[in-house]
C-alpha cells in the first residue's frame, strides 16, 4: 500500500470544516485544473481527469466532526481510498489531514505517485484557502 498525506491547520471550527468535506458537492472546489465534466450529489461525484479518463467516487463513511472516507464508485485499475480526518485543535482551529492510500504495482507507482502526491497537497491547500 502506497500512502500520500497532506495536512493543514484551518482557522475554522471543526464542525464547519467537517460539514464542508461531508458534502461531495463542495469537493469540486478542491480539485485541480485538470478535472472537468464534474457532476456530484452529496454522496457521489463523477468527473474526467485530463489525459487519464473518467472517475466516479463515493463517500463510504462519515463520522461527524471526525472523518470522511471516499472510495471508488465503480471499477478502477487499482484499489484506492481517500480519508479526510479533521481534529479540533481548540480556539476554533482545525487540523485537516487528507490521506490517499493506493495499491500500486511498481509500474503504476512510477506513473501515479507524482500526481497523487500533488493531489493531496493541492486539496488541503485549497481547503485552507476556501475556509479562511
Indicate the topology.
Elements: E1 2-10, H1 14-21, E2 35-40, E3 44-49, E4 53-63, E5 67-72, E6 80-90, E7 93-102, H2 106-131
Antiparallel strand pairs: 1-7, 2-3, 3-4, 4-5, 5-6, 6-7
Task: Outline the structure in words.
With 132 residues, the protein is an alpha+beta fold. It has a single domain (2-131), classed as START domain (Alpha-D-Glucose-1,6-Bisphosphate, Chain A, domain 4, 2-Layer Sandwich). The protein is 26% helix and 45% strand. The protein is built from two helices and seven strands, in the order E-H-E-E-E-E-E-E-H. It has helices at residues 14-21, 106-131, and strands at 2-10, 35-40, 44-49, 53-63, 67-72, 80-90, 93-102. The chain has a seven-stranded antiparallel β-sheet, with helices on one face. It is globular and about 45 Å long. It comes from Arcticibacter tournemirensis. InterPro entries: START-like_dom_sf. This is SRPBCC family protein.
Counting helices, strands and paired strands, the structural category is alpha+beta
- Calculate Rg over CA atoms: 14 Å
Record the strand order, biggest sheet. 1-7-6-5-4-3-2
What is the third-level CATH name, the topology? Answer: Alpha-D-Glucose-1,6-Bisphosphate, Chain A, domain 4
CATH-level-4 superfamily name? START domain
- Poorly predicted runs are none
What is the strand tally?
A: 7
- Looking at the overall shape, the CATH architecture is 2-Layer Sandwich
Key traits:
132 residues; Alpha-D-Glucose-1,6-Bisphosphate, Chain A, domain 4; 26% helix; globular
Brief characterization of the structure:
The chain has 132 residues and is α+β, with helices and mostly antiparallel strands. The chain has 2 helices and 7 strands; from the N terminus they run βαββββββα.
